[in-house]
TrEMBL record:
Residues holding ATP: 29-36, 146-149, 179, 187-190
Localization of this protein: Cytoplasm
Highest classification ranks of the organism: Bacteria, Pseudomonadati, Pseudomonadota, Alphaproteobacteria, Sphingomonadales
Protein name in the entry: Pantothenate synthetase
Gene name as annotated: panC
Enzyme class label: ligase
Pfam families, alphabetized: Pantoate_ligase (PF02569)
Subunit-structure text: Homodimer.
Domain of life of the native organism: Bacteria
Record GO terms (molecular function): ligase activity
Keywords: ATP-binding, Cytoplasm, Ligase, Nucleotide-binding, Pantothenate biosynthesis
Species annotation: Novosphingobium album (ex Hu et al. 2023)
Length: 287
């Protein structure tokens, strides 16, 4: 496994790997957990070589967010990726990614608005800009992202379609189902911010979402189900709810009632120092 920190060595490493066949990219911000390693394992099934990027992207953090506190543990991450048989780690510095004079912003409208886009202004511009750069730098045949960040996946797919990207083609941007802890909490690097008590309380997020989905699928009024979900979260240790929302799974249109198309329940809520997000499928009304 090779680790590179600047663009020229990256291009050389990628050119060598390419000779062996298709190349997969797994973009991350490091502080790796089983969720990330699942993306790597899925990548290995789909390509001859796997590159993982590790870059805590300042552009996607708002003022007052946790850019400085975000865990950085390259040595530990490298050992985990080596054990998975990853071929290449792309770990640029901020100066390499955004050299003096960098002035480009990629902004995807529509799917980036509302939900996390409303709670974190500018966040998805930062994500789209860095992911577009990562795609251009590595030119992967396939790229893998977690469904945990459902809106992010929609934004990246929209960008790839709108810009006619060929490496990867929008159809080769793959979503991997959320990997969860035994109590249902979605794995996330930010779970490390939680105290022991908060960690236990955090499991009420997926549990309350599942209960809301049972109600919605049973025909309960969507607004009432979302209200009950928020009340449960605020009564179980969460200090604030950024949003709970029922959306079309693909275009993220707001839904006030069940739809015959695939739907998604999405939520974001704050507990202790962490802001946790989650999302789950809701059965279409004709099933
Ligand atoms: N539990 C998970 N299951 C599947 N994929 C995941 C999971 N957690 C993160 N990922 C995916 O891993 C990739 C890198 O995510 P990132 O490095 O931000 O990790 P994270 O755990 O989501 O961190 P954060 O706490 O910042 O949200 C993204 O595509 C993300 O969706
Ligand atoms: C896709 C990503 C690596 C871009 O910085 C990040 O948003 C993440 O880790 O989900
Ligand atoms: N996994 C999403 C990255 C972020 O929250 O900034």
């Amino acid at each position: 496994m090779q680790t590179v920190h600047s663009v020229d060595p990256l291009r050389r490493a990628v050119a060598t790997l390419r000779k062996a066949g298709p190349l997969a990219l797994v973009p991350t911000m490091g502080a790796l957990h089983e969720g990330h390693l699942t993306l790597v394992r899925e990548a290995k099934k789909r390509a001859a070589s796997v590159a993982v990027s590790i870059f805590v992207n300042p552009l996607q953090f708002g003022a007052g967010e946790d850019l400085d506190a975000y865990p950085r543990q390259l040595e530990r991450d490298s050992a985990l990726l080596e054990a998975e048989g990853v071929d290449l780690i792309w770990a640029p510095t901020v100066e390499v990614m955004y050299p003096q004079g960098f002035a480009t912003n990629i902004s995807v409208t529509g799917v980036s608005e509302g939900l996390c886009g409303a709670a974190r202004p500018g966040h998805f511009d930062g994500v789209a800009t860095v992911v577009c750069k990562l795609f251009q730098q590595v030119l992967p045949d396939v790229a893998l992202f977690g469904e945990k960040d459902w809106q992010q996946l929609a934004v990246i797919r929209r960008m790839a379609r709108d810009l006619d990207l060929s490496r990867p083609h929008a159809d080769r941007i793959l979503g991997v189902p959320t990997v969860r802890e035994a109590d249902g909490l979605a794995m996330s690097s930010r779970n490390a911010y939680l105290t022991e008590q908060e960690r236990q309380q955090a499991a009420s997020l997926p549990a309350a979402m599942k209960a809301a989905i049972v109600d919605i699928e049973a025909g309960k009024d969507v607004k009432a189900a979302l209200q009950a979900l928020e009340t449960t979260l605020l009564g179980s240790g969460f200090s604030a709810v950024d949003y709970t929302s029922l959306r079309d799974a693909d275009d993220l249109t707001v839904l006030d009632s069940r739809s015959p198309r695939p739907m998604r329940l999405l939520a974001a809520a704050r507990i202790g120092r962490a802001r946790l997000i989650d999302n789950m499928a809701v059965m279409p009304s004709n099933c």
